[in-house]
């Protein structure tokens, strides 16, 4: 599988140090994080809150370990703030990633998002965009897509729990209302399954728009508990709702088969935020790498 395809495998630092909850992995250094990524057999990383922003320093520390930067998260506020504010911040983020050699920019709309609210029930209080907000989002994303294209880059939209683009129906609408040339999709298995969506149906339907992949597994019993007990997204993460591929309830083999058949090119990123003192990040990185090798041949 993936023979001849230009597919690279990365892992996100969020298993070592959590951007939304810095107390998770607060004692783990940047150097430990990237060293363990390389030792586990990965060739790339996304950017975490402990990563140096000086590109010369970051390039040197990564190259010593044979790592590249796959992408980095960008929070857009297209539905809640003036477009120019998001666009200016985006250009600085784009230029940083360009210098690091990345080809795609992860974008997620955070207007009215509840993902960072510790006490807000995830499934009861999920934001729902109005028609006006959908228009602002679509128009704004296409503008960001144009800014990315200036540097021969793409934006990949990250559907995410606790935001206005979480469900399969919302992903469908976003894809329908944006230009495929300007707006691509980040496909995240874990967020789809946690939301209660058919993760394979979304993959098959939008596979031509997918230019970045997050490989995230879900502990289904904990996902059900979050819904039943009205927990927040951050409470769900602390409880261990997410894990690495091969350790939860998702079958990744059909995902790999579909991406292979479609000739997918780009990064696949293991991303599984957990409490590193409950789930040793190096141990779980090794577990993920072994599962992916056995399941996909990568």
TrEMBL record:
Residues 38-294 form the Xylose isomerase-like TIM barrel domain. InterPro entries: IolE (IPR023952), IolE/MocC (IPR030823), IolE/XylAMocC-like (IPR050312), Xyl_isomerase-like_sf (IPR036237), Xyl_isomerase-like_TIM-brl (IPR013022). SUPFAM superfamilies: Xylose isomerase-like. It comes from the Bacteria. The keyword Transmembrane helix does not apply. Keywords: Cobalt, Lyase, Manganese. Its cofactor is Co(2+); Mn(2+); glutathione. Its EC number is 4.2.1.44. It catalyses: scyllo-inosose = 3D-3,5/4-trihydroxycyclohexane-1,2-dione + H2O. Pfam families: AP_endonuc_2 (PF01261). The keyword Lyase applies. One of its GO terms (molecular function) is myo-inosose-2 dehydratase activity. Pathway: Polyol metabolism; myo-inositol degradation into acetyl-CoA; acetyl-CoA from myo-inositol: step 2/7. Belongs to the IolE/MocC family. This is Inosose dehydratase. It comes from Neobacillus ginsengisoli. The gene is iolE.
């Amino acid at each position: 599988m993936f023979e001849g395809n230009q597919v690279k495998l990365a892992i996100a630092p969020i298993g070592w140090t959590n951007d939304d909850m810095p107390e998770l992995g607060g004692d783990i250094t940047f150097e430990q994080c990237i060293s363990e990524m390389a030792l586990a057999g990965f060739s790339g990383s996304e950017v975490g809150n402990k990563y140096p922003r000086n590109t010369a320093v970051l390039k040197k520390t990564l190259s010593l370990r044979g790592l590249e930067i796959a992408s980095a998260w960008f929070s857009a506020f297209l539905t809640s703030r003036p477009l120019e504010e998001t666009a200016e911040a985006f250009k600085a983020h784009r230029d940083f990633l360009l210098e690091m050699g990345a080809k795609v920019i992860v974008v997620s709309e955070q207007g009215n998002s509840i993902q960072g609210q510790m006490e807000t029930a995830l499934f009861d209080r999920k934001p729902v965009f109005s028609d006006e907000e959908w228009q602002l989002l679509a128009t704004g994303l296409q503008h960001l897509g144009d800014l990315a294209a200036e540097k021969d880059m793409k934006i990949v939209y990250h559907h995410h729990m606790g935001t206005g683009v979480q469900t399969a129906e919302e992903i469908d609408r976003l894809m329908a209302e944006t230009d495929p040339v300007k707006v691509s999709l980040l496909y995240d298995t874990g967020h789809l399954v946690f939301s209660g969506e058919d993760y394979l149906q979304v993959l098959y339907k939008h596979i031509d728009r997918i230019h970045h992949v997050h490989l995230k597994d879900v502990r289904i019993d904990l996902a059900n508990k979050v819904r039943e007990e009205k927990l927040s997204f951050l409470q769900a993460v602390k409880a261990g709702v997410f894990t690495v591929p091969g350790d939860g309830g998702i079958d990744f083999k059909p995902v790999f088969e579909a991406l292979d058949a479609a000739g997918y090119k780009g990064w696949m990123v293991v991303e599984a935020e957990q409490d590193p003192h409950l789930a040793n990040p190096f141990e779980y990185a090794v577990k993920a790498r072994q599962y992916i090798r056995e399941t996909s041949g990568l």
